[in-house]
Amino acid sequence: MKGTALSAVFAAATLLASPVFAADDLCAINLQKINDEMATTGATSEGLVDALNKHIDEAKAAQAKGDNKECITITNKVLERLNKTEKGSSGA
């Protein structure tokens, strides 16, 4: 009986702490997505690559400071830009 109660308390503590970890994970996940997208799509414009790299550096700096909200905001914008660029280059 005590084991079940202890498990319930542990599970509740884990659920309450998970949003903090989720934000950190989303920042890292977005950075990985950007890395993958840039490697596979191959941006056509050097200016675009430079601009994206600047934003990626800003996101990594925000992540290093622990400002995951800012990192997520920046990485979401970069992913959106990559998505628009990819749609534009597909001839759609």
Task: Give a verbal description of the structure.
With 92 residues, the chain is an all-alpha fold. The protein has one domain (19-89). It is 89% helix and 0% strand. The protein has 3 helices and no strands. Helix 1 packs across helix 3 (68-89) and helix 2 (46-65) packs antiparallel against helix 3. The longest helix has 40 residues, at 2-41. The chain is elongated and about 35 Å long. The model has no long low-confidence stretch (mean pLDDT 78).
What is the alpha-carbon Rg in Å?
Answer: 19 Å
Q: Segments where pLDDT lies below 50 for 5+ residues?
A: none
Number of H- or I-type helical stretches: 3
Helical content band? over 70%
Average of the residue pLDDT scores = 78
The count of domains is 1
What is the chain-wise order of helices and strands? HHH
Structural class of the secondary elements?
mainly alpha
The number of distinct β-strands equals 0
What is the approximate shape?
Answer: elongated
Distance between the termini: 62 Å
Largest sheet: none
| Strand portion | under 5%
Oligomer: single chain
Organism: Pseudomonas parafulva
Signal peptide: 1-22
Keywords: Signal
Protein name: Secreted protein
